[in-house]
Amino acid sequence: MRLNVLKITCLVFFTTLLINNAAGKIFTRCQLAKELAKHKFPRSFISNWVCLIENESGRSTTKVTQHPNLTTSYGLFQINSKEWCRRGRKAGDCNMKCEDFLNDDITDDIRCARLMYDRHGFLGWSGWKNKCKGRTLPDVSRC
Fold first, then answer.
1. Which strands, in side-by-side order, build the sheet including 72-74?
2. CA–CA separation, 29 and 139 (whole Å)
3. How many angstroms separate the CA atoms of 141 and 143, rounded?
4. Tens digit of each residue's pLDDT (9 = 90 or more) over 11-25
5. Which residues touch 142 (CB under 8 Å, ≥6 apart)?
6. For residue 52, which phi and psi values (nearest 5 degrees)?
7. 128 exposed, middle or buried (CB, 10 Å; 0-12, 13-18, 19+)?
8. Inter-residue contact 89 to 83 (CB < 8 Å)
9. pLDDT in tens for each of the 143 residues of the chain?
10. Where are the alpha helices (DSSP H) in the chain?
């Protein structure tokens, strides 16, 4: 009986691990640079985008950040629920559900991040302002 409980517990644990790993991704620096290039980000700005993403989400597509102002930021680019998306339904300036930014398909994340960039530039992200602006950017030249 005790062995069966242990087997079931292990099965549930490993199934949960597999589901969580299938739903999201943590990019390496080079994987991220290549993915951005694949989505036609200008090469001259890829280091800025990599720096932004490293400082906003740690290159994780599943990052969720609760803020004191009762908003939440989601995914690789930490897209905020106040203006850009809504939890549970498509809305906001990107017309997206915030949860859609938490999977490993970053196509919709990129579409929204480009809209954010078009409106605010990199200054729309505090991670870029505080950690990247005027500083040495990540070297992605060998990627």
1. 64-66, 72-74, 79-80
2. 9
3. 6
4. 333 333 334 444 689
5. 30
6. -55, -50
7. buried
8. no
9. 544 433 433 333 333 333 444 468 999 999 999 999 999 999 999 999 999 999 999 999 999 999 999 999 999 999 999 999 999 999 999 999 999 999 999 999 999 999 999 999 999 999 999 999 999 999 999 99
10. 2-23, 29-38, 46-57, 107-120, 126-131
Question: And the tokens for 39?
Answer: 């989505």
Q: Which helix (H) or strand (E) holds 73?
A: strand 72-74
76 close to 64: Cβ distance less than 8 angstroms: no
The amino acid that residue 109 corresponds to is: D
Give the Cα separation of 28 and 143 in Å (integer): 10
**Listed residue (58, 92, 90, 94) closest to 75, CA to CA:** 58
| CA pair distance 44, 17, nearest whole angstrom | 37
User: What pLDDT digit, counting tens, does each position of 74-100 carry?
Assistant: 999 999 999 999 999 999 999 999 999
The pair of three-digit structure tokens given for residue 88, joined into one six-digit string: 């549970």
